[in-house]
Amino acid sequence: MKIEKFDTREELGQAAGTLGAQYIKEAIEQNGEANIILATGQSQFETIETLVQDKTIDWSKVRMFHLDEYIGMSITHKASFRKYLTERFVNRVDGLKEVVLINGEVDPQQELQRLSEAIKKYPIDVAFVGIGENGHLAFNDPPADFDVEEPYLVVNLDEQCRRQQLGEGWFGGLEEVPLQAISMSIKQIMKSKNIICAVPDQRKAEAVRNCLTLPVSNLHPASILQEHAHCVCFLDTQSASLL
Q: pTM of this prediction?
C-alpha cells in the first residue's frame, strides 16, 4: 500500500480521481473494457467529480458495481446510495456499458444472489473505497469478517457507523438510520487489481492511524488494505494528522 498526502480534500479528490481515470483507461486499452467499483459518502464527492469531468474516458466500455446499500432504503430517500450514484455519476457520464446497483428494497437473499452472480463474471480493474470513522471498509464494521468468500453479504451496522451517517447529514435522527445493509465483502474488494482509497477530514484521523499503522486486524477492517499490492491511500492534512 502506498500513502499520498495533500493539503486539502479538493487536491486529494483530484489526485485520487486522476489516478483512477488512468487505471480505467489502461484497462480499456488492454482488455477492451473496464470494471470498476464505486463507493459513496462525503469522502467520495471530489473523487467522483474528477472522474465525471474526465472527457477522455470512453464510458461505453465501463461496467460499474456498487459497494454497499442500506436494507429497506427507498431510492427516493436522500441517504440512498443508489440515488447518490445515479445523480452524481451514472446520469452524468455517457452511456455506461453496464450499471449494477444494489437494491435494498427487495428480498436481501435474492439480491445477494443477483449481485454475486453479476460480479463473479468480471475481474475488477479498480475499486474506489473510503475508510469509515470506525475503520470500516464498505459497510464491514468491526469485527469484520475477513473470511467470507461470497462477494456480497448482509451486515449489521454498529452505532458508531450509524452516527457517522447521521453526522454527515443524511438522516434527521439516529433512529432513522437503518440497522442493516448489503455490503461488498472484504475478500471481494481485495480481489480488485487496483484500489483507490480516498479519506479526507479530521473525523477520520483516528481510523486512518489505526488502519494504516497498526497490525492488520478485523477490529480495524480497512487495515487489510495494507496487504494489497496496488492500493493507494489518499489523505489530506487533517485525516493524516495523527500519523
A: 0.96
Joined together, the cell numbers standing for residue 114 give 443477483
The total of other beta-carbon atoms located within 10 Å of residue 172's CB is 10
Instruction: Tally Cβ neighbours within 10 Å of residue 28.
Output: 18
CATH number of 2-236: 3.40.50.1360
* C-alpha–C-alpha distance, residues 82 and 180, integer Å: 16
What count of other Cβ atoms lies within 10 Å of the Cβ of residue 242?
Answer: 15
Instruction: Return the DSSP state at 220.
Output: B
9 in Cβ contact with 201 (< 8 Å): yes
The answer to whether 102 and 139 have CB atoms below 8 angstroms apart is: no
* Distance (Å, whole) CA 84 – CA 102: 12
Nearest to 130 by CA among 212, 36, 199: 199
Q: Provide φ and ψ at 173, rounded to 5°.
A: -160, 160
Q: What is the mean pLDDT of each run of 10 residues along the chain (243 residues)?
A: 97 98 98 97 94 97 97 94 96 95 97 97 98 96 97 96 92 95 98 98 97 98 98 98 97
| Other beta carbons within 10 Å of 45 | 17
